[in-house]
Design brief:
It is a single chain. With about 280 residues, the protein is mostly helical. About 80% of the residues lie in helices and about 0% in strands. The protein contains 11 helices and 2 strands, in the order ααααβαααααααβ. It has a two-stranded parallel sheet with strand order 1-2. Helix 5 packs antiparallel against helix 6, helix 6 crosses helix 9 and helix 7 packs antiparallel against helix 11. The termini are close together. About 35% of the residues are buried.
């Protein structure tokens, strides 16, 4: 995927997402046998991998020769992902202990945020990632390169803020509509929590784009630290508040902290100028 994005072949990456969901949806509509559904999901992922590899065959790396990630890079990425997975687990555990209905409301809010996350990643972050190799190739001055990359990250965050504002407005409208229609209270509460999570969208863009830029510079050590700091913020806010809303707020603040730290790390990494043309594959 990284090679395709670097070559500007974003439509192929987006189309490949269909192989993840459509086969599973069709399988669920046709059968209730869990083994068959599981096999279809695996087959869909295999087709997606084949589809992406076929695209890579006709794409040359945009920043020079691609190298397989070093062991330390893989370990840092694995550690970061592992720690990050604890964040939604903690939030759901906190919601489960917050009282009847909190887990349902929280799940509704998190699902809406996840949908917004997909929109943000596909429509805003991927094009920004594709623009970075161009700046690497064309930048000769270290200061100008750093300024250009930081501005790219800030524009991504601004786009995320616009997406968040639009989706939050739609969510608020849905909240009042659901209230007037007398729908389930847990659903209504979940709609009221969703705008809190949506405030993290700009920082989400900073975090995703920042991690890709750091990898292009051969830097991965901040990943576990950022993930651990983010988790600590979420747990701290959740424990201090002791409420379901506090757990949701902690989740949003954790994502925000991660984004700000990613921006700071990128500003530090780009001061020396563009990375070498031989980069690790991410």
């Amino acid at each position: 995927m990284g090679t395709l994005v670097a070559n500007g072949r974003i439509p192929r990456v987006l189309i490949s997402q269909a192989f993840k969901g459509l086969p599973a949806i069709l399988a669920v509509l046709l059968t209730t046998e869990i083994t068959v559904i599981a096999l279809v999901i695996v087959a869909g992922e295999a087709l997606r991998t084949w589809y992406l590899f076929k695209g890579v065959e006709h794409a040359a790396p945009a920043t020079g020769r691609m190298e397989f990630p070093k062991i330390v890079t893989l370990l840092n990425q694995i550690g970061s992902v592992s720690i990050s997975q604890l964040l939604p687990i903690y939030v759901r555990a906190a919601l489960a202990s917050a009282g009847l209905g909190a887990i349902s409301s929280g799940d509704m809010a998190i699902r809406l945020y996840s949908g917004a996350n997909q929109v943000m990643s596909s429509a805003v972050v991927l094009p920004a990632v594709a623009a970075v190799p161009k700046h690497i190739r064309e930048s000769a001055d270290a200061r100008q390169y750093s300024k250009t990359v930081v501005l790219l990250m800030l524009r991504t965050a601004r786009s995320g803020a616009i997406v968040a504002a639009v989706l939050a407005t739609a969510t608020v409208a849905a909240y009042f509509g659901a209230d007037k229609l007398g729908l389930d209270d847990d659903l209504i509460t979940g709609l009221s929590w969703a705008p809190i999570l949506l405030t993290a969208l700009p920082s989400l863009g900073l975090n995703i784009l920042g991690s890709r830029i750091l990898l292009m510079h051969g830097i991965s050590w901040p990943f576990p630290l950022i993930a651990l700091t983010s988790l600590t913020v979420a747990v701290g806010v959740g424990q201090i508040s002791g409420s379901a809303v506090g757990a949701i707020l902690g989740f949003a603040l954790a994502q925000t902290v991660a984004g700000v730290l990613s921006l700071a790390m990128v500003m530090r990494a780009t001061r020396a100028g563009p990375p070498e043309q031989d980069v690790e594959s991410s």
